[in-house]
Amino acid sequence: MGTPAFDEIMGPPEREGARGELVDLCHWLQATPAEELRRRQEAAETTFRQLGITFAVYGDSDASERIIPFDIVPRIFLAREWARLSEGLIQRVEAINAFLHDIYGERRILKEAVLPEDLILGNAQFRPEIAGIRPPHDVWAHICGIDLVRTGPDDFFVLEDNARTPSGVSYMLENREAMVRLCPELFSQFRVAAVDSYPDMLLETMRSVSPRGCGQNPTCVVLTPGHYNSAYYEHSFLADSMGVELVEAADLVVDDDVVYMRTIAGRVKVDVIYRRVDDDFLDPLVFRPDSMLGVPGLIAAYAAGNVAIINAPGNGIADDKAIYSYMPEIVRFYSGGEAKLPNVETWRCREPQALKYVLDHLDELVVKLVDGSGGYGMLVGPTASAAEIERFRAALVAEPHRYIAQPTLALSTVPTLADAGLAPRHVDFRPFVLTGSKGVKVVPGGLTRVALKEGSLVVNSSQGGGTKDSFVLMDDAKAMTQTMGGMTQSIGPDGMVQTLGGADLTREVR
């Protein structure tokens, strides 16, 4: 951890003054007293609390419902940075969809020994019950959250893939609304791409994968486990924003392999379900028989092609961190090219040589459960106690296949309002990528998570992290054309990037 962190506003440590394109933000920070910044930040958090924008912390009896702390200083992406990121995100999500389609179908990637067979077929996230089922329009990962970290001006890395039920988009939208209301002057100084069309983009994606086709006015719903779920606010927020029904298992019934929603006017056929229920609980006839959160017969209706489920059952295998370590090979196998967004260097502890290296360098590495999330089950070696390191050593020796390890990166920092004033804090980033029958779209923004504790690299909300608004800048009001990786892309005044040629399908990126 001896390498100085890259400051996204000021640039590399040797630079004097703000990065040229961000001088206006630096001037704004200098001209706005810390007391005023704090007043605006507290006003935003008060609004979030009044709106009920909270998340649950399981096992925490002192504060089961919390707001995620919000920081008033935005994180900024330049237009050229965003164009490059979007191209890499599209490539990666297309590879994830191809991978899921393959392993639940022909399994070419296993037959050609690109991946070890046991890594897939012996994985707890692999769902053999889904094998042979084709989702409507062959789309598996309709909504992806690809977590990115930055270590330098042009150095972006994928930290992990989220293809099950990625959360956080409601915070992206509410953060932007707060910034527009509390810091309107920033939007006159910067041309910022809008994110408020996300609910419309999501609804368009859902309708596009309906078994009946989007022209038939399909019925779409959001399936929630209920108000005790940690992301319930987001479930209700998105359903309300899209103008669709928020339902629980008891609101749905399957009859003759068709899903219906119970209403006071009678049954209504359901075509598309955006489920926020994990696979294990989705259908008690197929997965956990004790589940009260799922819909009996749902998978049969899905297999019959009568309903689309977003994201598709079985997607958890693409979230597995051991699979993540093979993503460069996966991208190469399905796209024929090298990954445009690289992985963080990763040691697979299931491999004896990798395990030996990790055990010898535990105090230098970050160690993670392959199926972990939320910052749980993770060791950050440089900040861990000797006792914590020894506990992880024992766990690694006992079950090495359950862990991967990565170097401790010098994550980039963004000025953040701390108790003593503005101070650098480490950040990561989750952009949201939507895939429907008409192609792939990248939302021009995302969720920036910030580690509020000085020196901390853990940004998860459940571990004390907060969020920032993420500005994607547009260079000017005129459309401009550029060529990237053999594809011509047009960047318009609304921040939309459209692929004009050179690829197998036409894709729009927002």
Automatic annotation (TrEMBL):
Pfam (any one): CP_ATPgrasp_2
Stretches assigned to the Circularly permuted ATP-grasp type domain: 74-451
SUPFAM superfamilies: Glutathione synthetase ATP-binding domain-like
Region Disordered, annotated ranges: 487-510
Domain of life: Bacteria
InterPro entries: ATP-dep_Glu-Cys_Ligase-2 (IPR051680), CP_ATPgrasp_2 (IPR025841), UCP005522 (IPR016450)
Listed name of the protein: Uncharacterized conserved protein, circularly permuted ATPgrasp superfamily
Organism this protein belongs to: Sphingomonas palmae
